[in-house]
Amino acid sequence: MLMSFVLEICANSVASCIAAEEGGANRIELCDNLLEGGTTPSYATIAIAREKVKIDLYPIIRPRGGDFLYSDLEFEVMKKDIELCKQLGCNGVVIGMLTPDGRVDKHRCKELVDLAWPMGVTFHRAFDMTDNPFEALEDIIEIGCERILTSGSRNTAVEGASLLKDLVERANDRIIIMAGSGVRANNIAQLIKTTGVMEYHTSAKAYEDSKMVYRNPNVSMGGIPGVPEYGISLTQRKEVLQIRELAEKALHEMKQ
């Protein structure tokens, strides 16, 4: 059986979408507010991204940061965003809703999946916040999602590698398991060899210095540790290309 590597880039801007495509990504998850885990980007961002890139485009449908327990009003916003993504010609959307007891909200997620059709649907890392990953796996298969983005219920995919391997085996080709969180060029080969996962998700980003000349030393608009005040987060074309090259090298070695 020929193994095929798929690379999805979590892009936070149209510029990042373009860099992802130029680097050889197969698909884009388009997000805003990556520091909150990703929220739904603006209509204009989705529209222009769709105009600029040809690879698959999957905006995240997440009205806010925080948990994945949404109010009825937030649910209405999510449904409207899915309708807009369909109108704009997106290939799919990324969703995830939980119940208060940490299970997949099957009823409302199924409603979103049905609304999204014929677009594809990825279930995002809300999966990692469920109380039973194997039960959640079966629920997500049942509601009709095509893949699950997961770190193996740990902070990073490397830490969750054991569960990722088990999920691939349990899924048994009924749904795609896509590994994300902490995926980098320096660990992609290890992840492929230890988990059997063939789809990977990463931002491949770096902070590029602002072109601002005047910088007021008395005011901070961010103040987030590790995030430069005058840094702009952008997907790096070279990093995307390197991850793909190293992944394909690892697959070639495994086939020999």
Automatic annotation (TrEMBL):
Asked if the keyword Electron transport belongs to this entry, the reply reads: no
Query: Record's SUPFAM superfamilies?
Result: CutC-like (SSF110395)
Recorded GO cellular component terms are:
cytoplasm
The record's subcellular location field reads: Cytoplasm
Top-level taxon of the source organism: Bacteria
What Gene Ontology molecular-function terms does this entry list? Answer: copper ion binding
Keyword list (alphabetical) reads: Cytoplasm
Principal subcellular localisation of the protein: cytoplasm
Q: Name one Pfam family in it.
A: CutC
Family, as annotated: Belongs to the CutC family.
Q: What is this protein called?
A: PF03932 family protein CutC
The gene that this protein is the product of is: cutC
